[in-house]
Fold this protein.
Amino acid sequence: MLPITYAIRNLFRDPGRLLQTVGGSALVVLLIIAASALHQGMEGVLQASGSKNNVILLGAGSEESVERSEVHLDAEASASTAIPGLARPLGSTAASGEIVYMAPLTLETGQKEQSLLRGVTEKALLVHTHVRVLTGSFPRPGQVMVGRLMARHFGVSFDELAPGKRLSFGNTKFTISGVFEAPGTVLESEAWFDRNDLATLTQRNTLSAIYLRLDEAEFDDVQVFTMQRNDLELSAIREDKYYEKLSGFYAPLRAMIWITTTLVAAGAVFGGLNTLYAAFASRIREMATLQSIGYTRRALLLSLIQESLLSTLTGALLAFLLAQFLLQGVTIPFSLGTFTIELTPTIILTGLFSSIALGTLGPLPPALRCLRPALPVALRS
């Protein structure tokens, strides 16, 4: 077998080709890392947003969209009293009737963005247990509490949405009372209003949904309530199942990300193959000379693969560095909120295995073609 130093020296025989190979592999690996991060980030935030201990009561026929649902105001009190076994932290039943509405919000600077608004009472904190108020306080009438990622949703600094600042919904201005966090969920990019304020501004006398947190109760108990109260026209769904359905709704978008990545990466791969074909074709006599002094074709093939692996792994290292500076911590908005790209070990391993596969399988066709001619023919080429 040829020493590894032979492969290393050959890499620098043609600096232009080396740069092309490293750059092409870096592009492919970076695209794979970006696609994996987008896929995992969107799917992860939707999965984390739903709790298996929470049940959502929606209007019958609106199980796929809280925004389109309508629930009578009386249903909140009826559910909290008629369903046994609901959680009762601090002696208060964990049942929160909420209004969810999609509409544009306007900052003091005049910047406007479509945002998800949620009209709540203080009982919302009993159900959404992962919500923590970071600064300020829960919103009272005339106030709004914003998620910590809303600033990134608007593309402004956090100071623009600090407590005391103002934002507008329609022609009505609200003072920001506080900032909350709900790590890893879509709630972090929402704006929470006093429920009566949002009901007045949206001109509705119904709720969007009722969120219940189970303790000793089971999901079947909630379903029995919906069947007993046919007059309320309710449907029950687990919160985690609701967000699982939403994740399925965004599956075509994630598929488009992978298709686009594959098409662009394929162009880079084919360009790299052309470079390898040209490079190896000029080394047929060199390979034949090494065979004549005793090296087997298998040893030469391994040496060519070593060269390719060294260049693709160098490109992968460059791709990891670019991903760290360009992708890590970037917040991506989508219709339900925002999610933050995190370069997890799974994503890093995906990029690493992709570069190894690229460096191992990519050079096989040109290398086999280079080693195929018979020794006398190759020496005369």
